[in-house]
Design a protein that fits this description.
Elements (H helix, E strand, L loop, with lengths): L1 H54 L2 H11 L4 H33 L4 H7 L1 H7 L3 H6 L3 H22 L6 H17 L23 H14 L1 H13 L2 H37 L3 H38 L4 H10 L2 H16 L5 H26 L1 H22 L6 H4 L3 H21 L4 H22 L2 H15 L1
Helix pairs in contact: 1-3, 1-5, 1-7, 1-10, 1-11, 2-3, 2-9, 2-11, 3-5, 4-8, 5-8, 7-8, 9-15, 10-15, 10-16, 11-12, 11-13, 11-14, 11-16, 12-13, 12-14, 12-18, 13-16, 14-16, 15-16, 18-19
Length: 476
């Protein structure tokens, strides 16, 4: 039950992180326009590389190490102080390098590059990994909700014209910084003071560095497309891709919330030698994410062409096709999130995980070079799907000796069949009616009913699991 509750908390947190920009997307798209939205995407892509260098895999490493020592207050506290000290050192170094790069090499958008630097500072004080390792997701969700709502209010009250791009960047960065700082008071009673001599921050450097490679290469899908679009195409193209990508990632956040929840859960089982429990958790999680990722993917594809320009504005007609083409990553990343983040990482098979995401990163560069020049934003979307497919395929191959792939995919055909039927019906409805709020709700409801009926007819096991969960809740 704790895993389910943590999933719901983390799903809520991930949705909150995505829903704030999702609410502001149509407003910002219309106020700033595709060109200025593209500038924000471009400058933020560069700062992302630097704060990832500073973070250096510490989020995943800290999460896992805290989970390993969860039941020992002193070792847990020693881990916290050591890992956080290392994080402050590496982030400070990244911050200095970023400022040097901005002043030496930036000829355009310097003001916006400097405002984006707040994200690096926010990374230095981010201790969410500690609470995730404890599987205490409620603290993170509740505390950050108020900060995110405050940022939403500020955006609507401060950003009024196309000249307010700097204010928009400042609000986003500052809200991230404040949100991270508000977690610190919750450490009281959770840790004890450990002598600085016993922190030993550099003993965490090498294992964190090992996790840095998969972390930075994974982010290639988020960053490289934008950088290459900014160089090889127009800022308007980049704006269309960036806003479409936000919509896809909003849907994806609901699915991948399981990864953050299951990593410490599986790591703790692995530390106790419960290998059978690790495998059972993997099978259940894979079935669960398949059941929810497939209808979300097909549902978004069904309405994408009309939804994009209706939601974002007339300058974003291209966004509809980008959403349609990129939507398959919802399923692909959902699967690789289970095989990679929920299995390979917590059982310390880091080299294999690193290999898989490196394959994806290298293929993403190649696909981008081939496709962006000819197809622009659509090419970047296709490149993303292609590289994510290779990541998922390679991870499935890597786990074949320890995990039964037949058992993983036993129920998948049912979800795919129900999802395809839902897509055909919803897409047909969308093609004959106008896109309005009421019609959008109608399409979502119809799609959900069709999918649920399909699961009942095919006797999908996810329904039995849901029924058992409900019985447990009602019996308490």
């Amino acid at each position: 039950m704790k895993v389910i509750k943590n999933y719901l908390y983390n799903a809520g947190y991930q949705i909150l992180n995505m829903i704030i920009p999702l609410i502001t997307v149509p407003y910002i798209s219309r106020v700033l326009g595709a060109h200025d939205v593209g500038i924000n995407e471009y400058t933020n892509s560069w700062v992302t590389f630097f704060f990832l260098m500073g973070q250096m895999g510490i989020t995943l490493y800290g999460n896992r190490e805290v989970a390993y020592h969860r039941d020992d207050l002193y070792k847990r506290s020693q881990t916290f102080w050591g890992v956080e000290a290392l994080q402050l050192l590496t982030v400070s170094s990244a911050f200095v390098l970023y400022l040097v790069a901005v002043f030496l090499f930036s000829t355009t958008f310097k003001e916006f590059f400097l405002l984006q630097a707040i994200w690096i500072i926010a990374t230095g004080v981010d201790i969410s990994w500690y609470f995730m390792g404890l599987e205490e997701f409620r603290i993170t969700v509740v505390r950050n909700t108020l900060v995110k709502i405050a940022s939403l209010i500020l955006i609507f009250t401060v950003v009024k014209t196309s000249n307010d791009l700097g204010k928009y960047i400042l609000i986003l960065g500052a809200s991230q910084l404040v949100g991270n700082l508000t977690l610190w008071p919750y450490l009281r009673g959770n840790i004890v003071w450990v002598s600085i001599k016993k922190w030993h921050p550099f003993k965490h450097f090498y294992p964190s560095l090992l996790l840095f490679i998969p972390t930075i290469t994974t982010q290639v899908y988020l960053v490289l497309n934008r950088l290459m679009l900014g160089r090889m195409s127009t800022q308007a193209d980049l704006g269309n891709f960036g806003q479409a990508d936000k919509i896809v990632k909003f849907v994806l956040a609901v699915v991948t919330a399981t990864g953050t929840v299951m990593l410490p859960h599986v790591a703790n089982k692995f530390a106790k030698g419960d290998i059978k429990g690790v495998r059972n958790s993997l099978y259940s999680s894979f079935n669960f994410v398949s059941a929810i990722a497939i209808p979300m993917m097909f549902g978004l594809m069904a309405i994408a062409k009309k939804f994009g320009p209706w939601f974002l504005g007339r300058e974003f007609v291209l966004a509809g096709s980008v959403i349609f083409l990129e939507a398959p990553i919802i399923l692909l990343i959902a699967w690789s999130n289970v095989t990679g983040t929920q299995y390979l990482m917590p059982v310390n098979r880091v080299k294999e995980y690193t290999t898989s995401v490196t394959i994806g990163a290298l293929s993403n560069v190649i696909f981008n070079f081939v496709l962006i020049g000819k197809y622009g934003a659509n090419g970047a979307a296709i490149a993303t799907v292609g590289s994510e497919f290779l990541v998922t395929a390679s991870q499935l191959w890597m786990i074949h000796s320890t995990i039964s792939r037949r058992k993983l995919f036993r129920e998948t055909w049912k979800y795919l069949f129900c999802g395809m039927v839902m897509f055909i019906v919803v897409n047909r409805i969308c093609s004959v009616i106008n896109m309005t709020v009421a019609n959008l709700i109608l399409e979502v409801v119809v799609g959900a009913i069709i999918y649920l009926l399909g699961l009942i007819l095919t006797k999908a096991s996810i329904l039995d699991e849901a029924q058992k969960l409900l019985k447990k809740r009602t019996s308490k």
